[in-house]
Description:
Layout: H1 2-28, H2 43-61, H3 79-98, H4 101-113, H5 121-142
Helix pairs in contact: 1-2, 3-4, 4-5
Amino acid sequence: MQFLLKIRRDYYAGALMILIGLIVVNEGRTYQLGTLQRMGPGYFPVVLGVILVFLGILIAGTASTGGAEEQEAMPHAEWRGWFCIIAGPALFIVFGKYFGLLPATFVCVFVAALGDRDTTLKSAVILAASVTIFGILLFSYLLQVSMPILKWGL
């Protein structure tokens, strides 16, 4: 039964990649393609879409060639991880709007890092502080994104 679930999952993954690739190719065709020497705005998306379709075919095609020794147990749902990863960007939006880039980045990374069961509070704080410092340097000073670093109030 586990082997059938693995095969079905690989087929679904391949089919999803093929579907996304076809959508990207279809949308990319609406832009000017250009040539290899003078690429238009649709060239890169079309090429990436074709690569996605090719990889999807490879994944779906190799799904039935795997042996029974590749069986794996069905993992249980990681509700904590899912919640933390979804809550991180949501908190970034709220904190970014009311408090600025620094607290928004810190909270986003800190909460998302807590989704991993092996992460300690100390390592989450260190990761969040590191990403926040890098993000402030990159987005505020180097790219000059017009989001305030610190802001207070509604």
